Every structure is written in structure tokens, then in C-alpha cells.
Amino acid sequence: MEVVASSDVLQGKSSGRQYSTLWHRLMALTPPRNLVSSIQQHIVDFFWSGRHWVRAAALYLPLAEGGQGLICIQSKIASFRLRTVSRLLYDCSPSWLNFGKLLLRSVGRFSYHKQLFLLNPEELDLSGLTPFYTSVLQAWHTFKFTRATSEMPGMWVFEEPLFFNGLLRARTLQSASLRTSLREAGCTKVGHLMKAKATSLEALRRRSNTSSIRILDQVVKEVCAALPESLRAFAEDADLCEQWIEDGDYSFPSLEVTPAVGDWHEGAGQLLTLRTPHLGTFQACGKKETYNLCVKVLNLRSLAGVKESRWAEFLGPDSSPKGSWRCLYKLPVEKRTADLQWRIVHGAIATNRY
Q1: 75 with 41: CB under 8 angstroms?
Q2: What single DSSP character describes residue 161?
Q3: CA atoms of 3 and 41, how far apart (whole Å)
Q4: What tens digit of pLDDT does each residue of 216-241 get?
Q5: Minimal CA–CA distance to 135: which of 298, 303, 12, 283?
Q6: Is the whole model's pTM more than 0.90, yes or no?
Q7: Confidence band (pLDDT; 50, 70, 90) for 130?
Q8: Could you give the CA distance from residue 36 to residue 164 in angstroms, rounded to a whole number?
Q9: Ranges of each domain in the chain
Q10: What does the alpha-carbon distance between residue 328 and residue 102 come to, in Å, rounded to a whole number?
Q11: Is the pLDDT score of 39 beyond 50?
Q12: How many of the other CB atoms lie within 10 Å of CB of 233?
């Protein structure tokens, strides 16, 4: 891939052929991480003319948050993968949808596809999955999600995964041996369990080689109790369960998303803030907001502890430009003057003091 030596291209403002070609390829291909790092290093070196005054991750932040909007390729790739997730979960039109589901089914031998995005990430074994869909699931883990408390009932409830699902905290399903038995018997979704309850738990006991039918009865009780009240009555309706067709085109539940930053907490005077962008539901996330969040999450370690201004310790916290970064570039201030102001605030200017 050719790196184009243009500041507009590097900051994502060009629609040139090379720039468009690069993004088009990255939408479908998963390049080696060392190749991406090498290209990114060339971009940063070009921006600084070889002299790195500020951490590269700070340059990737939006101008309004103290950065320069320099493109972060790894974050761009992650945002592309998250658009794939959005289309996979909420758009039935892509021609590749069925093929994508087929590939995702190989994860964990549970025959899950969309359900994988509801599971606890640490429980997923991605070995054997194609590099592209591995990167899709890894990108998804830049988010934490929560289910809507007032979720409307629908046929998707029968598609809910039985295992590693934060919505269904059943004590009996914490047993690895029981999970294996149910998986081998083809009982991996709420619909499978409810159909067995409506017909014959004894048949499921024989297929799963479970020692006692009471264990399966306890699983049913715990799963039903774990479901929100609005979904519980729907799931226990035998007539609705009979109408359920596995892998049918049912509406995926709405998910509220927030950045997955672990134990990190925003501190006073820090450059990094997660108060923006505000995301809300995943399906409503815009491309720009998704990319900006990926920049912050994927560069969290590098940005942690970076001060918003080198001068706050001398001039006091009120000297911080937080919330006013864009003013540095407002007319009639010229671009070169604004860049100088930005460098001064960040302490990125040569002096005789070492």
C-alpha cells in the first residue's frame, strides 16, 4: 500500500484515489498488524517531520478535543468492522449475510451467529474463525452493551443463547459438563429448551445423556426466572414457541453501548475524555462517532495520564483550554498561527531549556 504524502490525506480530508482505495481495501481485508503499524508510523513521522513532540495518540483525537484529527488506521479498521456488525444485526439486505452467519457458526460449536454479540467476550474461543470475522468480533469488544430494561417481547426471545448470556444467569448452566451435554443434544437456545418443555423433557434428557430429568427441570425454571417479566410470559407461551422457526428473520434486540475501558476513570486535567461522543443505541451510532470512540478506546493506554496542557501546573487549572480547542482555529486566526497556538498549549515547541 502506498502512503500518500499529503497533510489533507493524512488528516482524512482528501477523497483522492489512493485514499479511497486504501479504505476500500481495509473494509474487506485484514492486513497484518505490523504493516498497519508501519504505515501509521510513516504518517506520524511525516506530520512531525521526524520530531515527535506529542504522543501520536493525542494527534488522533478530534481538533475540538485537543488533537489534530490525524487518521488512526487501526481505529478506522475497527470502525469499518463495527459497521459490519451493525449490518449483520439490523440489516437483512446484504448479499453476504447468510455466508457471514455460516462462518460465525464455527465459534464454540454452539451454532450461534448473531447470538455471539450477546455473549461474554472472555468466553469466546475464536480459533478456526476467519481473520476477517475474528477482527469483527474483536472490534465489537471495544463496546460494553446493556439490554433495554423495557424490551418489547418478540420472537427473538426464542433465539436467545442459553450459554454465557448476561441476560440469563442460570446457576445450573455454570456447569461445563451440563453445557457440553446440552450442546451435543442441540439445545443451545431458549427456543430449544421451551420446545423440550412443551413436548418432553425426558426426550431431551436421553439425547443429552443427563442423569436426572430434575436437572433439566431446574434449568427451565432458572432460565424462565432470569428472563425479564415482559419476555418471560412470551417465552412460556407454548403456542408462540411452536410458531418459532430456528434462525428465522427476527428483530435483534436494541443494545445501549458505552466504551469498554475497564477500570479507567477520567481525571481532572486529562486530555482524554469519554463524555463525547454520546452513543446511545448501537444501531443509531453514526460513522464519525463510532470512529472517534474507537480512537479513544484503542489508544487508551497511550492517552492515559496525558495532560490537556503543559501550562496548567504553572498557570493553574483555569488556564486549561478544555472545551475551547476549536477557538484556536476560528477565523480570522490563520492556520499557521492556530497551529503555533496549539503547539504552545501542548508544550510542543523548541526552547533552549532541557
Answers
A1: no
A2: B
A3: 11
A4: 999 999 999 999 888 999 999 999 99
A5: 298
A6: no
A7: very high
A8: 33
A9: 1-148+257-302, 149-253, 307-354
A10: 51
A11: yes
A12: 12
